[in-house]
Design goal:
This protein is an alpha/beta fold and 463 residues long. It is built from 16 helices and 13 strands. The protein binds guanosine-5'-diphosphate (GDP). Guanosine-5'-diphosphate binds next to helix 8.
Amino acid sequence: MIQLDPIAALATAPGIGAIAVIRVSGQDAISITNRFFRGRDLTRQASHTAHFGTLRNRPDASGEETIIDEVLVTIFRAPRSFTKEDVVEISCHGSEFIIQQILRRLTEEGVRLARPGEFTQRAFLNGQFDLVQAEAVADLIASDSDASHRAALTQLRGGFSRQLKTLRQQLIDFVALVELELDFGEEDVEFAHRDQLRQLMLDIRRVLHPLIESFSTGNAIKNGVPTVIVGKPNAGKSTLLNALLNEEKAIVSDIPGTTRDVIEDELFIDGIRFRLIDTAGLRQATDTIEAIGIERTQQKMRDASLVIYLFDGLNIAPTDLRDAVAEVRTSGKPYLLIGNKLDAIDAGRKEELEGIASEPIVWISAARHTHLDELKAALSARVRTDAAVQTGSAVVTNARHYEHLTGTDNALARAITGLDTGVTPDWLAMDLRVALQHLGELTGEITTDDLLDSIFSKFCIGK
Ligand code: GDP
């Protein structure tokens, strides 16, 4: 375990609070804090114990030490701490002035102020966790919905990286054998058992594929699900948006095609964030302003991960409904078919339209705010059909991870094709090395300082 120079930072959010926590980590963190702590001798206390006392300023000319604050100091001895170094957590009163005084006092004793993410970087360097987990710490701190919080927690607990590490080690053993074959040059030797190698590569790809596929869900969880509401003018899209957001965000009007601007807002359902996008409708443009609106609608539909198709149950012609269903189906996006104005239609009409659509319709009345819970449940269910979200299994939320997962997969696919076509060992070794490079960068076994700096600089100070 390495203990680096002592660093300190405020670990809690800046601003006024009941308490604030300052974290100190590194060589001599405990004895340094002890120099201006009055209470028990911290250097003689066991790990994971908390001690009440006061922190003191340097003695003035008359030898008097003024009190900075009454604090509770918790000590963690290496390697049983977050960074695996000696760590002191000082809980003081949450005033900006006190925090600054304590940090200044620490720097007087030779402690350096930490850079963003430096605590987590040390934890990573000391093998506390791998890079995927370190990045999960950042995501956990930044998570603002239940689902993104759960995804980050799963990764922090080891997620997919442990499994990949084992497979990577097995692949390294094979690459060593293939490279040994290269040393024999012209001689026709095969140390690496080709069938076993193929099997291993297939196994790795089997682990990679659900992870790669989870990225779109994972990304949605982290960044929200872009959801578009489409339908003909007067279907009630603006009314629905208002009902869902419970505020007057959209212009409701009796004139067809007045919702010209695309309005975006967020809706949280079951801990999932839906980014709602209202649109100008799907009908043919009749004037220029509307044309811009429709162009943007189609753009938004391309950007959306989920489509809410809303139709006017009172006024839609049965053939139009059939065409609309066909149209939204061909968009290839997951969608929900929503029938509006339930308050104004009778059971016979409802049945007729259901027969024509020949798929489930969620019926609502946007104006009367009825059955909106069914609509919300359907939205949530659409996103949660991905089993990973329900079971809490690993979901890839990070673009860097996604890049290396697909990089590994592509290299392995090439290597397998190579095996099938009987390529020479040097070609095989090249693809395998590319796969290993991606796998290593994923879990942090291969890192460059630049990469580490860029990852950890995204953290906030004190993490
Ligand atoms: P948009 O063009 O699709 O955005 O449609 P609007 O939200 O502007 O609504 C068009 C018209 O339908 C307005 O007069 C609304 O009051 C009316 N409307 C919307 N929802 C309902 C509903 O649930 N029931 C009834 N009866 N009328 C509705």
